[in-house]
């Protein structure tokens, strides 16, 4: 009879321990799932920002934008064709 009481007590503790383990595991899974959703949302936001930055970069490197920046910020002008000096490579006769 004493052995049966001990067996029932042991089984009860085992069942309760398993229940607590299941509850803890489900809670941990929920917390990890919430974290996953936050990270996926952040990833999506970063992807949108990356695409916008790529679009901005592509518009900033066009010839027109570069020319406008050179004119406004650096006061550069396109020279008249007569003012352009072309330099050609000169071969050395000394060997």
From TrEMBL:
InterPro entries: Cell_div_FtsL. It is found in: Cell inner membrane; Cell membrane. Residues 29-56 form a coiled coil. It holds the Pfam family FtsL. Belongs to the FtsL family. Essential cell division protein. May link together the upstream cell division proteins, which are predominantly cytoplasmic, with the downstream cell division proteins, which are predominantly periplasmic. This is Cell division protein FtsL. It comes from Candidatus Competibacter phosphatis.
